[in-house]
Amino acid sequence: MKEKLNLIILEEIKSLKSLLNLLDEQFEYINKNNVFALEGIVKKIKNQNAHIAKWEMERRKLTGKRAMSEVIASFKDKEIEENYIKIKNLLEEVKLQKDTNEALIRQSLGFATRMLTLLNPDRTPKTYGPKGLR
Question: Distances in Å between the alpha carbon of 131 and those of 1, 99, 122, 128, 134?
């Protein structure tokens, strides 16, 4: 079980590194405002997420309902511990990059909305009623 779990962890590390690279690529496309490339990278990110989920399901089949930290501690194996720490660090990096990309996309959307509002202002008449309200 220990060797199989370590194999699964190593595959998850590869998959997470690949996802992080895709998110970095997405970051570049966001900065360059390359909408068409962004559409293509979204499909790749979804596929990579599915690949990670597959390995995660394999790991859960192997460990059952036990927490990973508990399983890792029970093995007392330095290599598995180090790989588990790598996964945790990679997950933090992926989360940070994903949050950064989402914030940049929201900022770009907000800017585009404001520009559209300036270019196409509210066309209702600017008159006031008897109470001083529109």
Answer: 78, 47, 22, 8, 9
What are the domain boundaries of the chain? Answer: 2-119
Percent of the chain whose predicted confidence (pLDDT) is above 90: 61
Return d(Cα 122, Cα 108) in angstroms, integer.
22
22 vs 43: CA distance, rounded Å? 10
User: Could you tell me the two tokens for 35?
Assistant: 């909408």
Residue matched to tokens 């966001």: 30
Provide the whole-model pTM.
Answer: 0.81
Sign of CA dihedral 90, 92, 94, 96: negative
Q: Which CATH class is domain 2-119?
A: mainly alpha
